[in-house]
Amino acid sequence: MGSKIKIVVTGASGLLGRAVVKEAEARGHTVIGTAFSRATAKLAKLDLSDASAVSSFLCEHKPQAIIHCAAEKRPDVAEQNQAAVEQLNSQVPGRLAREAYALGAYFVYVSTDYVFDGTRPPYKVSDTPNPLNFYGRTKLAGEQAVREASDRAAILRVPVLYGEAETPGESAVNMLVDLVRSSSGKVDALQPRFPTCTDDVAHVLVDMCEVSVGSAGEVISGVFHFSAKEEMTKYQMCQVFARILKIDDSGLVPITEKPQEPVATRPDNCQLSTEALEEVGISVHCVPFSEWWTKYLQA
Q1: How confident is the model at residue 213 (pLDDT cuts 50, 70, 90)?
Q2: Helix (H, G, I), strand (E, B), or coil: what is residue 289?
Q3: Which H helix or E strand runs over 200?
Q4: 235-240-243-244 Cα dihedral, nearest 10 degrees
Q5: For residues 80 and 120, is the Cβ–Cβ distance under 8 A?
Q6: What is 6-165+196-230+271-287's CATH superfamily?
Q7: Which residue of 186, 207, 243, 253 is surrounded by the most CB atoms within 10 Å?
Q8: Over the stretch 250-275, which tens digit does the pLDDT of each residue have?
Q9: What's this model's pTM, rounded to 2 decimal places?
């Protein structure tokens, strides 16, 4: 690895943001994490909707890279709070990318597999997005704003994530552990998902920053996909948790018909192809699902 760099991480109090801060600090980089509703003593409180405050903050700290993790990631919440979510997911990314460009900083925007409709997987970066819900549309608008704002910017689309959660509600995967422990409930056994560990996503994001801020002058720009390769339904994830916890999962009822959507429509299968990342030399290694969860649940 080359010289140490200064990185600003937005959404640093969240599931992915915490993993990114941890990974970057472990490599010796100077990291400034921002948060708003969950700001702590170690994180800078910053309202990303306040353009003046954001500009002043970035001018003060002069980062060499910005990793933008902050977003409203819950599709049902997005559907019901459209004005606020449109601001955070669609407008803020472009504004941050413009500020980064003015500072000569590299910018990475974390987006989602939900920009696709899930009908023709696996999706390459060249495939045309077609989001089915408001959340996906706002994230796609954020992508477009970033691409217009800077040629020193990258977009990394990722699927459903899991990791070291402060509360189960931080991840749709982590939430399933409580369901298994209750030994009852209906679980989707139809729609395939590709659960991906935040540690692996963080590794990719920091790799991208190191290459793009490095002395070689190479900038990783454009759209990229990162995802684990293991295909699992939520029911199959629950079966893994039950084996690890040695819990009888016979009380869990697999749903084999397409469930009625709670609020926001979900795409069926948005498997992401990682070939674009591999082509620029970024490792796409992922920890096996059962291996990570065995360590986490038995710790």
Answers
A1: very high
A2: helix
A3: helix 198-213
A4: -140
A5: no
A6: NAD(P)-binding Rossmann-like Domain (3.40.50.720)
A7: 207
A8: 999 999 987 676 778 999 999 999 99
A9: 0.96
